[in-house]
Amino acid sequence: MTSETSLHPVIAAVTDRIRNRSAALRGAYLARIDALRKRPRGVDRLGCANVAHAVAGASANEKMRIVAEKAPNIGIVTSYNDMLSAHQPYEGYPALIRETAMKLGASAQVAGGVPAMCDGVTQGYAGMELSLFSRDTIAMGTAIALTHDTFDAALLLGICDKIVPGLLIGALHFGHLPCVFVPAGPMGSGLSNSDKAKVREQAAQGLVGRAELLKAEQAAYHSPGTCTFYGTANSNQMLLEAMGLHVPGAAFVPPNTPLRKALTEDAVSRVLALRQRELPIGHQVDERCIVNAMIALLATGGSTNHLIHWVAVARAAGILIDWTDFSELSGVIPLLARVYPNGAADVNQFQAAGGPAFVIRELVRAGLMHGNVPTVDADGMAASGRLPLLDEAGALHWQELPATSGDETVLRGVASPFSATGGLKLLSGNLGRSVIKVSAVPEDRHIIEAPAVVFDSQEALLEAFKNGVLERDLIAVVRFQGPHANGMPELHKLTPPLAVLQGKGFQVALVTDGRMSGASGKVPAAIHVSPEALAGGPLGKVRDGDLLRLDAVTGTLEALVPAEEWAARVPAKRSDALAELHAHDLGRELFAGMRRNVRTAEEGACTWL
């Protein structure tokens, strides 16, 4: 592994800038968690009645261990439910963790559960308006679980889109505790993601019916485990590996296998070792750790959602990052992976080619990632570049990777990347600041100049497509989709119709203050436009027929309207009917306070600041 003296100068400069910008906030954060670390352990500090309540449900042996023997007690925060395929395998984890902890002279209790919604179920429907806010709800649920304040360490069980960021934000607010994240792995490969996308486009054109579409979708999403495309859930796992918060190499091992069981057991011993090493998560997640996560995202063409989520994660650790930091890093980080929607492969093929371990090893050796950050393994980032295996006796060990990728159509080394720069690009101009996932878009579509067609809802765009009135070059502007307006839903339902139009040879792009998810596809999409339209942002000034230019080469997003005319325009207002629609039913009333108080997308869409 490389020394920090050989770190790329841009990475060093961005890291230093973040460190300096965050100095006061980070210093105050560390002072608070260090004060908490100095207290006596929970059951020694709490009153007798409090302790009795805390252990009342435990066995006699566990009570003896926690109270009399003063053995470490691990809090488990789980996002288990059995309708979310990625989280269904967690059902048996608490029993396995408790059993393992007992063998190691410790104890473990489920401190609490947090909600875990599936964006795949809610895409295009009202539930998606609660999706982004579920992240902070999960963070609060994590805090409620750990606020019993009787634990010496914590294991966090979660994988998917908002769940991992929420658990991590919550854990960082208990930064005095050692923490390890425990994944469960992806489902086996089913119908390929590209074949699934073709059927979706056929359905959008009316060429196949509901029965054929449902058959294809069920062939793609077919068993316990994470969905196999490289969306937000699997990007979460890549970032946790790069941050050293997993048992090394744990991300993409399939569920319900001997290796997965061994890795889960090992997570228990790792979190106990972190306690002995006096390495709480608040110290472990420093500015270098955050930069490593940003680099891993860029090097693999990961989810655009993390330009929101990791800003919030960093803020929870007293660290301030913004989209300019991402953009400058993207200029020097090579794209090493082609995983759908950035290529044809799924995450199982990515793992078989070398997976996160290969990416991390390549980046650290090239001076493109911090190699000196503390991780859950005492060997640090060196261990993150190895693969876990079981030997003939069933014992867990790690081995060095081959020098080259197992499949260079999926994964490449730094010497021969798919692209010299990262998979994400910052756009700015008179339409605001936004981001685009360029790694998924063909190069001949990186610049789109076309007339605007303006919509105030995704439903209006879908209706226009259905009526055949979008058969031309266009840039679809879908506004009033920001966090203040309706919780900033993903607009992934728009991908098939826009892809159909693009497939017919039209110049097509999307510009929105909403999100497009980690599954953003081959249609150019300037997303997360800030400030959002409801806050008086410039998307409110766009009129049908305005010539717009999205340029992912120069990093600009402009309405080509004379400056005087543009300055004089009054932003459009959202209709009362649309406001009423997004305020009521299916739980939306409960999140009114979050909609009022939420920060901008570039500030992490935080509701707790």
From TrEMBL:
E.C. no: 4.2.1.12
Catalyzed reactions per annotation: 6-phospho-D-gluconate = 2-dehydro-3-deoxy-6-phospho-D-gluconate + H2O
Pathway: Carbohydrate metabolism; Entner-Doudoroff pathway
Residues annotated as binding [4Fe-4S] cluster: 160, 227
Domain Dihydroxy-acid/6-phosphogluconate dehydratase C-terminal: 410-605
Cofactor binding annotation: Binds 1 [4Fe-4S] cluster.
Annotated PROSITE patterns: ILVD_EDD_1 (PS00886), ILVD_EDD_2 (PS00887)
EC top class, as a word: lyase
UniProt KW keywords: 4Fe-4S, Carbohydrate metabolism, Gluconate utilization, Iron, Iron-sulfur, Lyase, Metal-binding
Cofactor dependency: [4Fe-4S] cluster
Function: Catalyzes the dehydration of 6-phospho-D-gluconate to 2-dehydro-3-deoxy-6-phospho-D-gluconate.
HAMAP family assigned: Edd (MF_02094)
Family: Belongs to the IlvD/Edd family.
Protein name per Swiss-Prot or TrEMBL: Phosphogluconate dehydratase
Source organism: Ideonella azotifigens
